[in-house]
Design goal:
38% of the residues lie in helices and 21% in strands. The chain is of the alpha+beta class. Helix 4 crosses helix 6.
């Protein structure tokens, strides 16, 4: 969108909003996201996987004139086995992406920058950004887009705090980034609906670098929202648009969705076959003159000469079906770079070291690193830039700190093999001690008062050169 057109029509929503919506091309596809919920899987669609129309003998035992049983039409339900693989792939991928945490690389110069960095870390902690990062990761992988919007909340006359919320399409929000011809975001729209006097109101909030405009529509007519004591537009003093927008081209399972559907259909068919063939069938040839009652001990079956009675059982599933199920599962995990870390798979590995675990999980780490170097990492870096800029403007003691560079450092998810790590360090330093006695007590984590425990241990130790 032309920035001049945007600026000239911010007070003219009947022209601006339709134009913004016309240019908007959301990456969110509700049809794809529905697959995140197993209830919506294709295998549960009765049009795609139909129940069977069959004939069964009349339960009353009625017969025709020729003595054959009267058959009644009925519907036999087929198996519909939906597997939540989309959820599994998303959860595991998010864990590898975010569970390693984020640290920060920065070299503040002067009091203002040092204070800005201190406030930055405090804002990060109070907003529980570690948990928000996980929510963002899940949204990118499953919904393909989300946005974090920052705002200030007044605590009292002299204090305020900087907060943020995460907005996702699955929560009913329409995310509308507005780009110029260079693909730079010049504004951001947040669409949602509210109710007033039982009437549905469509709303769009437009964030620019210095103002927040709130618009609403009733009967298709757009106008600036108004109300008693309401300020519209709302001044924004952050120096940047307070929105971090994340967008992916497709959900993480999109490429393997046909494979998942084939697997679910195959396993459902397999379940139907088991219903028919799983239990043994009693087959008879010749004439049987009498059966024993159900549950009777010492059962006897009377057969005429030449008659035969035997069980027919399905010894094993067809190898081709078993092989296809295994290969489909393998393709799903491999093509999404998702580790198959189920109990059955992991129990055969035995006690692997931390280094060995990293090598086993290298594919998942590569996928996580690709996201950290791409969509997710860019968003976190924008968050850092926004917060430092906002802090330098909003906090008097941080004036001039806007050029402070804070770079996020992403760690990969690892199993902490302490024995292996200590052994490596001991080899590196020639077998010298790595920590003091007091530090080892703290590292143990079984006491709340390290000093008290340390003194008690010292008091309990009798010197070897002193008689008790």
């Amino acid at each position: 969108m032309d920035p001049i057109f945007l600026k000239d029509n911010l007070s003219n929503p009947e022209v601006l909003i339709p134009e913004i919506k016309k240019e908007h091309n959301s990456s969110f596809d509700n049809k794809i996201y529905k697959d995140f919920n197993p209830e919506n899987h294709k295998v549960n669609n009765k049009t795609y996987r139909k129940d069977r129309n069959i004939l069964i003998p009349d339960p009353s035992g009625a017969t025709k004139e020729d003595g054959s049983a009267v058959m009644i039409p009925t519907v036999e339900k087929v198996n519909r086995i939906a597997i939540p693989l989309q959820q599994l792939i998303t959860i595991r991928s998010t864990a590898f992406l975010t569970s390693g945490g984020v640290s920060f690389k920065s070299n503040p110069e002067g009091t203002a920058q040092e204070k800005a960095l201190e406030i930055f870390k405090e804002i990060w902690r109070k907003n529980k950004c570690y948990y928000k990062n996980s929510e963002i990761g899940k949204a990118i992988y499953s919904e393909t887009e989300c946005a974090e919007i920052w705002y200030t909340r007044k605590l009292n006359e002299n204090e305020f705090e900087i907060k943020c919320n995460i907005y996702k399409p699955s929560d009913g929000y329409d995310l509308i980034p507005v780009f110029d011809n260079n693909r730079d975001m010049i504004a951001f729209g947040l669409g949602y609906t509210t109710t007033r006097n039982k009437e549905k109101i469509e709303n769009v909030d437009i964030y620019t670098i210095d103002r927040l405009y709130k618009y609403e529509s009733t009967n298709g007519n757009w106008s600036l929202s108004s109300g008693e004591g309401m300020v519209n537009p709302i001044p924004l003093l952050y120096g940047k648009i307070p929105v971090i927008y994340y967008s992916a081209k497709k959900a993480i399972w999109t490429d393997v969705q046909p494979i998942i559907e084939r697997l679910e259909n195959l396993i459902s068919n397999f379940g139907d076959t088991n219903d028919y063939n799983g239990s043994p069938i009693l087959a008879a040839s010749g004439e049987i003159t009498g059966f024993s009652a159900k549950g009777e001990t010492g059962k006897v079956v009377e057969l005429k000469e030449g008659a035969e009675l035997k069980y027919v059982s399905w010894d094993q599933a067809p190898e081709s079906t078993k092989l296809e199920i295994e290969k489909l599962e393998d393709f799903i995990y491999t093509c999404t770079q998702t580790p198959n870390i189920s109990f059955e798979q992991m129990k055969g590995l035995g006690a692997v070291s931390g280094v060995a675990f990293e090598r086993i999980m290298i594919d998942a780490h590569l996928k996580a690193k690709d996201m950290q170097n791409g969509i997710y990492g860019e968003g976190i870096q924008r968050r850092c830039n926004f917060l430092i800029n906002a802090i330098s403007i909003l906090y008097t003691e941080c004036k001039g700190a806007g050029n402070l560079d804070v770079t996020p450092q992403f760690e990969l998810f690892k199993i902490d093999d302490r024995v292996e790590r200590v052994e490596t360090l001991l080899k590196a330093n020639g077998g010298k001690a790595l920590m003091s006695h007091k530090e080892s007590i703290a590292a143990n984590g079984t006491t709340d008062d390290v000093e008290k425990t340390y003194q008690e241990i010292k008091a309990e130790i009798t010197p070897v050169n002193q008689n008790p």
